[in-house]
Design goal:
Elements lengths: L2 H21 L7 H15 L1 E8 L8 E10 L6 E10 L2 E10 L2 E5 L6 E2 L20 H6 L2 E11 L2 E11 H8 L7 E8 L6 E8 L7 E8 L13
Antiparallel strand pairs: 1-2, 1-11, 2-3, 3-4, 4-5, 5-6, 7-8, 8-9, 9-10, 10-11
Length: about 230
């Protein structure tokens, strides 16, 4: 007769336990240590999957609204290959981009790739995100005032968040933007066991017209990736 109340309480206990595991910082790794581990883990991976989204592009602006693909992390020859969605003269379009070091090629409504200057598209060279010493790893290294944030979930994975500030110079170097602000808010989501950086969310005045947020998701650390110069 006493078993029913006990069994009925089990779901409540589990729910409270899960909530506690996601909402509090618990025994989180100190911010500077966690960010340095995330930085070195990113660099050492050599390759990574990449998914970038922008929350809003001001009217009348050319630029990238989304990008998805793979990157090769390297100091001298970083690479990217994937789909880039952007707005050019008010028209939204998706193109295939291959970027190797400072050179970029675009495939638009065809299998052929042609050289393109990403500045003409109002977009950064995506390979630069993967150049060690000035890409994502340098953004992590230049984060100021980092503090422990919340624990969140991405599917079955628990992530520890850390928040901080980024200087305008890093935003300008990586995105070619940042004209509207001096500092930017950043939130990192790190998988505690592996130390892998899974999400970077940067918010602020990328444009003079209005603030926006770029969200970068990383996955497939160390997965085999081949990116070659296209035949032109």
């Amino acid at each position: 007769m006493r078993r029913r109340p006990l069994l009925a309480a089990v779901p409540l206990v589990l729910t409270l336990g899960l909530a506690a595991g996601c909402s509090g910082s618990g025994d989180a790794t100190p911010p500077k240590q966690a960010l340095e581990t995330a930085r070195t883990t990113f660099v050492d991976a050599g390759t990574v999957g990449f998914d970038l989204k922008q929350s809003a592009l001001p009217k009348g602006r050319n630029g990238v609204s989304a990008a998805q693909g793979s990157g090769v992390i390297d100091k001298t020859t970083p690479k990217f290959q994937g789909q880039v969605t952007g707005v050019i003269d008010g028209n939204s379009a998706g193109v295939e981009i291959i970027a190797i070091d400072t050179k970029t090629w675009m495939s638009f409504f065809t299998k052929d790739f042609n050289p393109v200057d990403m500045k003409d598209l109002g977009a950064p060279n995506p390979a630069e995100f993967f150049r060690t010493g000035s890409g994502v790893d340098q953004v992590i290294a230049h984060t100021t005032d980092p503090v422990v944030g919340e624990r969140t979930r991405s599917g079955d994975t628990v992530l520890q968040e850390y928040t901080g500030k980024l200087p305008k110079a890093d935003i300008t170097r990586l995105f070619g933007l940042g004209e509207g602000g001096d500092t930017f808010d950043v939130t990192y989501a790190i998988e505690p066991e592996s130390g892998e950086l899974r999400t970077v969310k940067i918010s602020g005045d990328f444009y003079k017209e209005a603030p926006t947020t770029f969200t970068l998701k990383l996955k497939d650390y160390g997965k085999s990736v081949t990116i070659d110069k296209p035949a032109t």
